[in-house]
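Hi R.,

Here's the chain you asked about this morning:
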Amino acid sequence: MQIFHRPPTTEVETQTRILQAAQRLFARRGYDGTTTRDLAQAAGVAEGTLFRHFENKKAILIEVATQGWIEILTDLLTELSEMGSYKAIAQVMRRRMLNLHQNADMLRVCFMEAQFHPDLRDRIQSDVITKMTDVAEAFFQTAMDRGIYRPMNPRIVAQVFLGMFTIAGFSQDTVMVEGSSPQAMKEMAEGLADIFLNGVLATKD
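And the predicted structure, written out as tokens:
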């Protein structure tokens, strides 16, 4: 009988497994309700292995949140840069909202734990939000330079857009009824895009 040996797990694969297990457990039990023993068991590693990859449990939390935000906002900004029209915000937001809902565990960890861990909030702000806002600001400044968006402070526009986008992506768990259909998500995306592009005031004759 031929025996197939499973190839050894690389350090990167082990770290990824730890982070994925942490994201699931932190989302379901909370940071304080999850022990390092729980994390090791869920990741299928020895508890000592956790501390070979991360200094402590807080370092795991910060890495989960930081990596998640970088991935999600990078996808958003990449899609924005590839838009065929500066007015195609609704299409981008709709796709990203659906994608964000698939990352509900990560978002839950960020929103819940950031309230109780200022160091996590500061790390996300300095390593992710500020840098992503810089990229979005340049995008909106270009649209203004081309006369597509009216002249205004592009950084404020970038901050408003990223804020609307983030809440929209998390809204199926906070604003919309549980189990909302893709059509309902589509309508929300289009409504937010309309408000972002056109505001809420009626056009004066």
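The chain is about 70% helix and 0% strand.

Let me know if you need anything else.
M.
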